[in-house]
Amino acid sequence: MSLRSEIAEQPAVIRRLLEAGWPLARSLSRPLAAAEHLTIAARGSSDNAAVYGKYLFESLAGVVTALAAPSLVTRYGTPPSFARGAVIGISQSGAAPDVAAVLAEARLSRAPTIAITNNVRSLLARSAHDVFPLGAGPERSIAATKTYTATCVALALLAANSAEARGRSALSLAGLVDSVIEAEAAEREADRLARRIGRARMIVVLGRGYEYATALEAALKVKELAGVWAEPYSSADFAHGPISLLEPGIPVLLFAARGAAQREARAMSRTLRKRGARIYAVTNDAGTAELADDAVLLGAPLSEALTPISFAVVAQLFALSLATRRGRDVEHPRGLSKVTRTR
DSSP string spanning 59-106? Predict the structure, then answer.
C-alpha cells in the first residue's frame, strides 16, 4: 500500500464513517453538550485537526474550546483544572503518551473524556471514558492522510450533534463524500501547481477561519514529504507583520472557500499580487481563482464549515507531487517514523 493509494481511499473511509458515526456521535455528544468548556489534546497532524475542531465546536455548539498544552501535565506537573469541562484526545495511533496523560488528568477532575483514534486498543483509548474509532483501516505511510480527514469528519459529527443537543442549528454533512471524490480526482490540477512552484526554497501557506487548519496541515505535509520550508499563517495574522517579509516571486499557497472569509481572501490576493508574490489557490470561489496565478477550483457544493476536509485532500496531492518532482522518497520521509512518542 502506497501513500497515493491511501489518499485514494478517503472517499470510502469517509462514507463508512458517516454511516457508522452518526449514532455514536449522538451518544458521545451528550456530555460534550453539557460541558461548560472543551479541551482538545493532540500532536502533529492531529493537532491541526484539533484547530479545525476548535472552530467547529465554538461556531456550531457555542462551547469555548481550547487546545491543550500537554507539557503542563507531563513536564511541569502543573495541569489546569478540567472541572466542569470535557476533554477530547486525538491520536491516529493512540500511542502518544503526553496526549493520553492529559485525558488521565482530566478523569481525575471527573471531566468526560473521549479518544478519537484509529487504534481502539491503544493507550489513548484505554485512558478515555469513551472512544470514537476512525475505522480507517491500516495507514502504513508515515504521512497521515486518511486518518487526518477521518479525524476531521469525527470532529464534525461530534460538533454537529453537540450543537443539536444544545438547541442550536445542526450542521448538515450532505455533499461531503462527493466533494472528497472531486478533490481526490484533482491530481492533475494539484500537480500543475507543484510544477509551477518548482524549486522554490520556501512557501507561504495561508487560510482564514475554518481554512486555517488546512493551511497548517498543508504546510506540515509539504515539510514532511517535499522537504520544503512551508510557513503557515492565518491570513489575518499574516497581515499583522509577517507580510513585511514577503519578497517578489515568493509562492503563496492560499486556501479559500466561499463564505464569511471569501471577501478577505480576494482582498489578500490583490495585496499579495501588488507585492509581487506568486499566488496559487485551492478554492471553490471562482473570484479567488481568477485573482491567482493558478488554482485548483473545486465545484462540488459544500458548507464552508466542511471545505477543510476536501481541501486537505488537494493539499495532500500537492505535497505528494512536489515531493516526487524533487526526487523525495514519500514512503520514507527523512528522519520521520509513523509513531512519535512525545512525553
Answer: III--EEEE--THHHHTS--PPP-TTEEEEEE-SSS--HHHHHHHHHH
- Residue 292 placed within a domain: yes
Q: Has residue 339 been placed in a domain?
A: no
Mean predicted lDDT score pLDDT of the chain: 93
Which residues neighbour 129 within 8 Å (Cβ) at sequence distance 6 or greater? Answer: 107, 112, 113, 114
Which whole-number Å values give the CA distances from 200 to 149, 218, 271, in the listed order? 28, 16, 21
What would the pLDDT profile of 238-272 be if each residue is shown by its tens digit? 889 888 888 889 999 999 999 999 999 999 999 99
> What is the tens place of the pLDDT at every residue in 71-125?
999 999 999 999 999 999 999 998 899 999 999 999 999 999 999 999 999 999 9
Domain membership of residue 282 as a residue range: 177-325
Q: Is residue 46 part of a domain?
A: yes
What is the pLDDT at residue 335? 59
Domain count, the chain: 2
* Domain termination site, one of 139, 173, 207: 173
Same-domain check for residues 188 and 68: no
Q: What share of the chain is helix, strand, coil (3-state, %, to 5)?
A: 50, 15, 35
